[in-house]
Amino acid sequence: MRKVAVVGAGLTRFMRRAQETGPELAWLAASQALESCGLGLKDVDSVAIGTAPDAFDGVHMKGEYLAPGAGGWGRPVTRPYAGGGTGVLVPIHAWFNVASGLFDVCLVVAEEKMSTCHPHPQGAFVTIFDNILERPLEPNLIWIFALEMQRYMDTYGITKEEIALVSVKNKRNGLDHPSTHVAEEITVKDVMESEVMVSPVNRLDVSPVSDGAAAIVLVSEDVARRISDNPVWIDGIGWNLDTAYWTNRDLAYPSYVERAARMAYKMAGITEPRKQINVVEPYDPFSYKELHHLEGLLLCDKGQAAKITADGVTQRNGDMPVSPSGGLLGVGNPIAAAGLMKVAEIFWQLRGEAGRRQVPGQPKVGLAQAWGDLMQVGTVVVMRVD
Amino acid sequence: MPTKVAIIGVGHTAFRATSPGLSYKELMFEAATRAYEDAGLDARSEIDSFLTCSEDLAEGTSIFDEYVPDQIGGAERPVYTVSGDTIQGLATAYMQIASGIVDVVSVEAHSKASNVVTPGELHAFALDPIFVRPLGFNAHAMAGLEASAYLATTSTTREQCAHVVAKNRRNALANPSAAHAAAIDPQDVLSSPPAFAPLTELEVSAPADGALVIVLASEERAKKLKRQPVWLRGIGWSTGSGITSGTDGSSADYARSAAEMAYRMAGIGDPRQGIDFAEVDDSYSYKEPQHLEALGLFGPGRAGAATADGATARDGDLPVNVSGGSLGVGQLFEASGGQKVAEVVAQLRGEAGPRQLKKAKTGLAQSWRGIPTATGAVVVLSRD
Amino acid sequence: MTERTLPGTPLSDEDMQQGKVLTLNWPASLRYEWDTGVAIGRFLRELKNGRIIGRSCHRCQRVLIPPRMFCERCFRPTDAWQFVQDSGSVNTYSLSHLRWDASRVEEPILVAVIEIDGSSQGGLLHYLGDVRPEEIHIGMKVKAVWKPAEEREGSILDIRHFRPIDTAQDGPA
């Protein structure tokens, strides 16, 4: 199996509303990523574009629209897509581009411009629900998460206060991230007293809507050895999609994340994830999701993620730092770009380049994960530095 | 030496102008069932990865990926969407297999075009939202612009384009799965109402509904199956300069670079020597000759005249769109390229019934994602 | 990553309101008429009749709600139609202070996943009604409140909502 490395990364600021168009945001991230590893557009063999619903940007076939900004002109471009899972799916898809031997350099770009959608991007989300059985009920996007969170809390006896600690941690971590537009020092009380949106979800339990882009560069081993002193290897990839019939599922546990994680662990030779993984960026669009995902990733026992959070294990200086970037709650949530931001964070953490966000102890192995569709898809990458 | 990958199963529904009795899920289930039966594989235990090719707004559902796994056997399995044409889906399957991570991949694509009440709005939604869309014209008019440029640059005539339409719709008469078979002549095409001049109504392919599934496998796996494998010898895809980019809009540069990639992989120096027949994108009449030239199967400006002379007919020197193409079978959104692949596979296997070609050892399928994209893909398939 | 300022130009509400940047408004008028198909088509017709119907798979022995013509676990056609009850239990619930478009409502919308009695963990997304929000709990037994027959049109909205089972009225749950 050909080895594949990440050698460069770039990010825009995450913003409530960007002046730049989608293709311009894509370009800002893509050009930075190339520059960071000394490559130019001429060196790029193929392009993978990640972006979530076309309904946000109001453009049909959005990948085609973004392709010129993402460096795609005149190249093989593909747009892999799994809703919110897309940000970590794009590097998985790009890994195939390189590992297959078809290409040596794949530029991976994720963009989201949610502010285009009026009056509110949440309005676009009504169209993710079943066209016949659910859309007539006029569901709000947050319903499904609130329903899942309630079931999770009820199953394991977890309180809202315990879950709020995730928002407190991630919004504080985000203060050190140059892309952030939502970082702040808050308390559990602030979360509890923020307005109830869709119970049990309060405003501070939710990541914002954002505009922004992220990009990384994936290369073959030959290229990596030639251009980089410290490539970060992608050791494991996993992805898994559960049934569309979400109302038939056990909402208390993300088994699709477990299946994706097991696939990635097997490939990466990880047998004891809790010992072998040093830094984690799980998908945290909602506070409870970080906990849910830590369990699905087998990084703690079922129902125990709140406890290890309360014990400080997941702090930047804890035994298993989780979302040191600040995550979606602390940096922002331009959907696909937010997922790829997490991969970029692991890249920087493993290279010791995360500045004020750097976790101690020279981490060697990290994991990024995203999640999406109808609470249904898990995408996982395991990364390692020599 | 590129990794060898084979197509080991194909299944599709009939393609029809409407499909009111069935949901998209039911169409997909039929196609998947047929494909897995064709491959002789158990859907739940013998397929490692599933891909589907779709675009949200063509479905009327955001994140359509949500709704695909169950009816293709993919629930609780590795599944994702490629927002592209079926041949881009095949390329992804190829990469997955060649990377060594999986052995068998299922690729699905479908069309429920009849459920789109506002196709004009849908097409307009793909246009650049700032520079083009506010002008308010029908997106097909972009094809009219390109057709004018192509005809002028190559001296191809409207009559020659009309021959393409008559040929493909007549070819579809021998294809029981085709939605738009018709016994028409070039004169009927020219005298149909002007649509997006120089294109008439009959020069624009009409939509159809249907679903298809294609199963691919590694060489090792393919050789263990009873079904004769059809080898994927070369694949390529490219996003080129669009019609409104201000560059030369008449040469289908995306098809040329996609073909170069596929030929390089297949080791084909002279495509006309290496390829026996082709299924190329014919979303509009002129697209067939334009693509044939970009693919290097005819010299610049030669494909139109050759068509009028019968070179691309079923009994011609290089049969093109024997299935009926998009003009005869129907425009199938992201399944359009898949339908062409299905035809090439049927021909290579000798299972094309009344339209079976005598010489069918190596075939080519090519797709284009339609207005306003400049994205196309090419796959070269062979019996050995 | 260095601490330098990253690219991107945030716009404020004032920038937009005062027209400091130009915008282009395009009201989407995409419309679809989806074929409901065999399974959901029948399901909707039975809702019009005031009944809930599922499909059973004889291999895995499940009764599927919502019904489908295929079993996703066994990957084979489902075998038979089967009526189920119009009662069930709350699998999970939420009180929504937001409409679909994120605008706020005065009284929360009561939302639940209902596990339908007679199905195999078959659930439907629906509303709860005739209940005080604080009384809602997971496991609560509920029953469908139907629209009058003449108002039903073959839609999930033919069920107005699910209400708590009233043992006096409905018999033991």
Can you give keywords for this protein?
heterotrimer; B: 384 residues; alpha/beta; Peroxisomal Thiolase, Chain A, domain 1; nine-stranded mixed beta sheet; two-stranded antiparallel ribbon; 14 helices; 18% strand; C: 173 residues; mainly beta; five-stranded antiparallel beta sheet; three-stranded antiparallel beta sheet; 3 helices; 10 strands; 12% helix; 35% strand
Structure report:
The complex is a heterotrimer of chains A (386), B (384) and C (173). By secondary structure, chain A is an alpha/beta fold. In chain A, 35% of the residues lie in helices and 19% in strands. In chain A, a hairpin with a 4-residue loop joins strand 11 (365-372) and strand 12 (377-385). Chain B has helices spanning 24-39, 56-59, 86-98, 119-124, 140-154, 158-171, 186-190, 219-224, 253-266, 271-274, 287-294, 303-308, 325-329, 336-349, and strands spanning 5-12, 49-53, 79-82, 104-112, 194-196, 199-200, 209-218, 230-239, 277-279, 362-368, 375-382. Chain B is of the alpha/beta class and 384 residues long. The relative contact order of chain B is 0.19. The radius of gyration of chain B is 19 Å and the shape is globular. In chain B, a hairpin with a 2-residue loop joins strand 5 (194-196) and strand 6 (199-200). Chain B has 14 helices and eleven strands. By secondary structure, chain C is mainly β. Helices cover 12% and strands 35% of the residues of chain C. Chain C is built from three helices and ten strands, in the order ααββββββββββα. The chains are: A alpha/beta (386), B alpha/beta (384), C mainly beta (173). Chains in contact: A-B, A-C, B-C. Strand 6 (196-199) of chain A pairs antiparallel with strand 6 of chain C, so a sheet runs across the interface.
